[in-house]
Each structure stands twice: as structure tokens, then as C-alpha cells.
């Protein structure tokens, strides 16, 4: 039985003050029907962590090296120092705008897992790839690359977010059937790599214009164990509506 996990991805939104107010308003509303979380910009992580009793607080990125001459970067040690144990990796915006590759995503996966933190690793096809019918090839390549050299013990605690790029921030969502089909396929890829027992442990989220209204039905899909939510996670009332929906 996999516990659903819903994580808001705030991207480059909200100040520290905004974050404190959001956490104060939402944290106590969280229920046990899912793991609830938010990924905030680095600067707001500490304030979010200090205010959160229930919410998982995640970073949106990290570096793959321990320390060194990497101007502008943040290490996992720095995140752990303020109590952060979750990190989103390989979001399509990072792949698209910041040169993230399958190789850097893999290096970050290894760094995060070796430091006993939990990655939420994003995979998903672009609109072009979707229209060309290559969705499964793309997510397979990204998934296999992300898990390179990850040991079976670590693999089971990874969260995968399937996010079709064409559905992120566009208001277009994959139908539940399409999302289920791709998430089941991703699980089969993990099973090929590690066996069914590990694959059955891995939680797979769908992300792409998720709204509170459709959340319950989305999570009724057998291979969809949660959601990575952008826009709808920024508004206190809609986050609370997601909590109330489960
Ligand atoms: C995201 O940022 O990962 C995302 C899915 O955004 P949105 O829900 O706004 O499409």
C-alpha cells in the first residue's frame, strides 16, 4: 500500500514572509490521507521548515558535488543543516532553461540518496515528443538514466514525478487514462531495473495543471500515487481544497 504524496512546486514564487503566512495557514490543515509538502525557493526553506509540523519541505534543486567552486549553487549538506530532506530533481524547467541533463540529474540522484535524502525526480515528454508518439521512449530513457548506479535499497524510496511538459502551467492536463498508462509504464521500467518488489514501493506522481477538483479521481488510478502541483499549490485555499479532497 503506497501512501499518496502531494507536493507543491512553488518555482520562483513567494517571499519568506509569504511562505511563513502560507505555512501558518495550511500546515495544521494537513491530514493523514497523504503526505503533503511544498518545495520552496532556497531562501524560504528555513522559514518554511521552522513553521511546518506536518508539511514536507523540499528544495527545488541541489548540486551534485559536496562543496567547491560552483558559484550560485547549494549543496545537500547546506540543505541538511536546515533540516531539508527532500529535493525535486530534473524538473523540466531546469532541463529546459538551466541545462540540466540526464547525466546531471543522475549525479544529483546519487548525491541526494547517498546523503539519506529523498529525491522527487521528474520525467516527461515535450509536446513535440508527445505528438510524435514517443512519450514512452522518452520517459524510459529519462528514468533509466536517472537510476543509473542507484542501488536497489535506495531505489525503493525514490519518488518519480511524471510531468508531460505540455501540461505544465498550460491548463492542459493529460487524461487520467493517459497519465495512468504512462505511470504504469514507468513502474514497469523500474521493475525491469530492480524487480517488481522495488517497483511496487516507488511512488509515482502525476504533474501538469493538477487542480483540487480532479485530484481524487487522479489518485484512484492504480499507478498514480500522488501529484506534483505548481500553480494550484501557491494559493492557500486551493492547497486546502486539495487536502479536503482526499
Ligand atoms: C510543476 O511545476 O511541476 C507543475 C506541474 O506546474 P502546474 O501544476 O502549474 O502545471
From TrEMBL:
Keyword terms of this UniProt record: Cytoplasm, Gluconeogenesis, Glycolysis, Isomerase
Record's keyword annotation contains Repeat: no
GO CC term (a single one): cytosol
Gene Ontology BP annotations: gluconeogenesis; glyceraldehyde-3-phosphate biosynthetic process; glycerol catabolic process; glycolytic process
CDD domains referenced in this protein's UniProt entry, alphabetically: TIM
Catalytic site positions: 91, 163
Domain of life of the organism encoding this protein: Bacteria
Reaction catalysis annotation: D-glyceraldehyde 3-phosphate = dihydroxyacetone phosphate
Pathway: Carbohydrate biosynthesis; gluconeogenesis; Carbohydrate degradation; glycolysis; D-glyceraldehyde 3-phosphate from glycerone phosphate: step 1/1
Subcellular location per the Swiss-Prot or TrEMBL entry: Cytoplasm
Keyword Ubl conjugation applies: no
Positions contributing to substrate binding: 9-11, 169, 209, 230-231
Single GO molecular function: triose-phosphate isomerase activity
Enzyme class: isomerase
EC number: 5.3.1.1
Family matches, as SUPFAM superfamilies: Triosephosphate isomerase (TIM)
Family assignment from sequence similarity: Belongs to the triosephosphate isomerase family.
Purpose: Involved in the gluconeogenesis. Catalyzes stereospecifically the conversion of dihydroxyacetone phosphate (DHAP) to D-glyceraldehyde-3-phosphate (G3P).
Subunit comment: Homodimer.
Name this protein carries in UniProt: Triosephosphate isomerase
Protein's organism: Coprobacillus cateniformis
Gene transcribed to yield this protein: tpiA
